[in-house]
Write a structure and sequence with these properties.
Largest sheet: 7 strands, mixed
Distance between the termini: 14 Å
CATH superfamily: Spore Coat Polysaccharide Biosynthesis Protein SpsA, Chain A
Order of helices and strands: HHEEEHEHEHEEHEEEEHEEH
Number of strands: 13
Number of domains: 1
Shape: globular
Mean pLDDT: 91
Helix content: 25-40%
Strand order of the largest sheet: 5-4-1-6-11-8-12
Strand content: 15-25%
Oligomer: single chain
Number of helices: 8
Structural class: alpha/beta
Radius of gyration: 20 Å
CATH class: Alpha Beta
Amino acid sequence: MSKHRTSIEFPVELWEALKKHVPARKRSSFILEAVKEKLMRESLKCLILCGGRGTGLTPLTFSIPKSMMPIGYKPIIEHIILYLKKQGVYNFILAIGYLGEHLIKYLGDGKSLGVTIDYSIEKVPLGTAGAVKNAEKKFTNTFLTVNGDILFTGLDISSLVEFHKDKGGVATIVLTRVEDARRYGLVSIDEENRVIAFREKPKQQVPGFINAGIYVFEPAIFDYIPPDRPSSLEEDVFPELADQNKLYAYIHNGYWIDIGDALDYEKACKDFYNGVFS
C-alpha cells in the first residue's frame, strides 16, 4: 500500500482539546481514524444490484446468488467493492433478493473490508429499475449504481462523476466496446455523448458500444420509476430519459466483462489467474 506524507492544520482550541483528551502516543492514530470515519460518512454512495436469479449460470446459481460466484479467491461482489474502495467509495447499499442471505452472511456491515454496507431487500423480484426505486430512501444526492455481475478495471470514478455533473443530465451510463454485441444490444450516441437510441440485439456478430452496467444517477431518477412493481432500467427508464435528452454516455476503454453466462464466467476466472486483474 502506498503512503503519502501530509500535514493538517488545527484551530488552536481544537488542538488544545485534542491534547487534553488524547495521549500524545495515540494522537496520530486517533486523527487517522477520525479522518477515515469522516470520509466514509461523506463519500459517494454506491448501489450494487445483486437481486437477479442468475439463470445464465444455472445450475451453479441454484445454491448461491450470481454476485457471490467466486473469481479467484473471493466472490465477484468483493472484487467490485474493493475496486471502488481504492477510488474513495466507502458507502455501499446492496439491493438483494434471491438468496440474499448469503451476501448478508458473508459481507455483514462491511467492516471487515473497511467500508460500510447496508441492504435494500426485495420481497419479490423488481427488475433493475424496481430495485433502484426500492432503495430510494437511502439516497439524497448523486449516487453510483453498479450491476453485481460485472468486473472492470481502468475506470476512473472521479472522472465519471465529474463528466456526469458537467453534462447536467438525470443519468449517465457507462458504455464499453465489444466485438460481439449479440448478447447485449447496441447504444448510439451523438457528438455531445448524449444517448439517442437503443438498438435491439443484433442477430449477427457485430462490434459496437454496449451498456456496461455502471451508472451515475441523480435522485430525480426515482421520478421515472413506478413504485411497487417490476420495471427495467434498460427497457423502461433509459429510453424515456433518452427521448427527453436527459441521458448521457461515458466511454470506458479499460477491461470489462459480464459473467452472465458460463463462457464469460470461465473467461473471467482465466483472466484473474492470468493477472489481467487482481
